[in-house]
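Much of the work behind modern protein science is quiet bookkeeping, done one molecule at a time. The protein below has been through that process, and both of its lines are reproduced in full.


***
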Amino acid sequence: MIFHVSIPADDPQRVAEVIAEIWGGEAFRFPPWPGAWVAIAGDENGTTCEVYPRSQTMAPGEGEDDPVWPKLDESPSKYVAFHFATSTDKSEDEIVAIAKREGWRTVSCPRGEFFDVIEVWVENRLHVEVLTHAMQDDYRKNVNMEMWRWTQKDAA
């Protein structure tokens, strides 16, 4: 179970507000991190998405017991090798309308024969997969350890 994720954004407040809207939750300032916002789903798991300014990367503390801290990146990459899939109670049309309103690329597409997703490209640079109820049902039915075992057959 992943309880929360963090993502970079050019406009952390706006991105947190849209993610909260997709979830039916709320967005708040995130005081521990300069300029950050957080989207809270309001579900029983405390599902959260922290949204940091794209120019601030996470760096490990310098001392043995020092926690993570924001490290400025003068020229952050536009794209990242990171994404997450999330659920929504909204319909596909509602998700597409939200993304369209924001001017974000949206593509409805299959992931093989296993499940479908709505690709929402947050700020047209960060990939988020949104799954409606029907998509979530297919995901739960088809994505499991047995489904992934085929990847081990050629490795032996």
